[in-house]
Amino acid sequence: MEKEKETKTLEEEQQVVNPWEVSAKGTGKIDYDKLIDQFGCQRLDQSFVDRVFRLTSRSPHIFLRRNVFFAHRDFNEILDAYERGEKFYLYTGRGPSSEALHLGHLIPFMFTKYLQEAFKVPLVIQLTDDEKCMWKDLTVEESKRLARENAKDIIACGFDISRTFIFSDFDYVGGAFYENMVRVAKCVTYNKAVGIFGFKGEDHIGKISFPPIQAVPSFPSSFPHLFSGIDKLRCLIPCAIDQDPYFRMTRDVAPRLGYNKPALIESIFFPALQGEKGKMCAGDPSSAIYVTDSQKDIKDKVNKYAFSGGQDSVENHRKYGANLEVDIPFKYLSFFLEDDEELEHIRKEYGSGRMLTGEIKKRLIDVLTELVERHRTARAAVTDEMVDAFMAVRPLPNMFN
Ligand code: TRP
Fold first, then answer.
1. What is the E.C. number (predicted)?
2. pTM here?
């Protein structure tokens, strides 16, 4: 891994993707092909989409069809094992840094929900309240409160309580989980951590000690109430690609501990309304659509801020068509408009200038409003008792059925 760092070219240095920073010099656009090379993961091609379709006999999720999840590590091995009749478990998480989630935050959870349903497998969701307490200016108490609030949004995505365990680090770390943390920590030198995460001398030691906490949910033995006696159960982690450094480290140490390496399925970032410049910033309300936005907020934000690839006059637009490469309404629709044919139609009409910017924005407003309304209704139905139930340390007796 240190070698990886040394061989980075200057060009690659200009693109920074790690759990705390996503940026690219120049256009600001992330080059995902380069990222795959840089990180050493694999591209998720059409053959995987077909294979998932065959294995689950249900239509592949829109995020698979549209290449939102575009990279992987050993996903093929998970599918091989599944085909032989072996199960696996899913692991994902969230750092609770803000009260309200934006659409980008929902992507891994919507996708994980689909995977859980399609493969009928258990799922653990880590809320890294400790991580956000250490990286953001949040007190322990406030981080814990945000974790519970965010748990409601996560539950609202529709997870099956009979197969899902949600935990917060402040509550759950200890016992077998902590034993694994110590095992991992002993395998990673300070130099290696600096190579992977770019820690600086001024960083407090809490940050340096954090990576094992995010690593060990990849190992079944961290959850004795769920996976006792099935140490060889494989783990699949759906996440955005900025989380890859944590799991590079995890995969590196796993064999030394006698554990399986976790497999990964990784997504691109959901672009900000203002255009593709890395991932959205939770701090700037005008850069994102939040799950708490009203219909009017959505309409105003899309109309005012969504970066358009349309031409500056109707005349020019009719003549040259829209630049779909940079057009945010089109990009957002490709994440959320389910109907493949309609999206194709829009691609042709808008790209050729027959459809106008106002028209595509209107379609986007409808799609987002429906999505946000659905989420709002689901979240309103999540009670404190339900949060407690999802977060209770308990066996899940029917998690594979
Ligand atoms: N570090 C992640 C964040 O800040 C949270 C997280 C913990 C996570 N475990 C994970 C994300 C596993 C994806 C997969 O949001």
1. 6.1.1.2
2. 0.94
